[in-house]
Structure formats: C-alpha cells, structure tokens
Amino acid sequence: MEQLTMLWEYQQADMAAERFKSEFRSSELRQKLEKDRNFIMDQQKSMKKIEADVAVMADRKEAIDDEFKRLNQLSEQLEARMNETPAEDIEQTQKYLKEARKLMDLITQYENEMRKLKKDAGVRDNQQREVVKRAAKAKAEFDELKKGYDVEYKEATAKLEVLKNDIAKKAVGIAPEYLSEYQQVKKHVVPPMAKLNGDRCGGCNMNLPQAVLKEIKVSGKIVECETCGRMIVSID
Ligand SMILES: [Zn+2]
Question: Distance between CA atoms of 2 and 157, rounded to whole angstroms?
C-alpha cells in the first residue's frame, strides 16, 4: 500500500481515539464531578474568608477589652481624685463632670462596637455552619459520583487501549518521516490530513494551485495545503 494511503488509514484510527477521548472528557458524570469539585473548592474558599474575618474580629475584641480596662482605671482614678479633692466650686464640678462624661461616652462607644461584633460573630457562626453543611453534602455527592466515575474510567481506559492498539497496528509499515510529519502537522491542525477534492483541499476547501496539484500526483510525496497546512492525500 502506498505510504500516504496507509497514513490516511492511520489517521482514521488516530481520530477515532481522539473522538473517544474528547467524548470521555465531556461525559455527564465527569462534568458533574468537576462541578461538585469546584463547588467544594468554593466552599473551602468561603470558609477561609470567614476564618480570616473571625480572626480580625477576635483581634478587635481583644483591643476593645484592653480599652475597657484602661477606661475603668481612668474612672477609678477620677473617682479617687474627686474623693481626695472634692469640687469646691461650680467650675471644678463642671470640670469633673466633663471628664466623667468623656469617659462614659467612650465606654458607650466601645459597648456599641462590642455589641456589633457579637452580632457579626453570630452571623459568621451561622455562615460557617451553612458552609460546612453545604460542603459536606457536596462531598457526599462527589464520593457517590466518583464510584460511578471510577467504573466509567476503567471501561474507558480499556476501550482506549483497544483504540491505541489499532493505531499501533495501522502504524506498522509507515516510514518514520511520514509519521513524524503527521504529528508535526497535527499540532497545528486536526485532522492533519485531508483528501484532495477535485482541485480543492478537502480540509479547508480552498483551491490548490496547479503546481501543488502536480506535486500531489507524485507518488508518496508529502504536499501540504498552503492555506490550512494539512497533508493532502489523493485517494478516493
Ligand atoms: Zn487546506
């Protein structure tokens, strides 16, 4: 058999394997698995985000606790001063009052912030619980799908093995330079070979120049389409 004809048959086997591989990649089960996996990864991201938020909140709570301690000390000091040096006129009373009010305002402000922090922490707790629940559900679904997928994968691997054997069989007798050229062209265009269709390339349907058409007639000569780069084979 002529080299290019053999290479054409090799391509049929090669493309059958490619089609099978792409079918397998787009299998419904595999798509679902990928969807679940992405979902689980999203939940893990959400979890990390919540954990980071909680850490920030814990830091803030600690800072506020320190502030409370400081303000308490200031209050005690003020009280001691008021006992030691009671106000003797209205001016002194107002001064003490102003200081006390300032402390009270700050304490109220921190109490409000603390309340808000507690509320936010509660929200985060709920979010965390939800995320854990959702992730666990997705993981269970993933594990179940994976069992089915493993069976599918095993079957597909066996089928692919058969297709690969067929490719190997079709390669027998083809000169290495034809096979390497085929692989080279396949990197750019798939399928890498096209039949001559009248005066046109069967791949891209462009007219081939007379000089190229002449070369195609030379037995075994590798001629590539100037437009799509496919190897042109002249067989029925
Ligand atoms: Zn072409």
Answer: 32
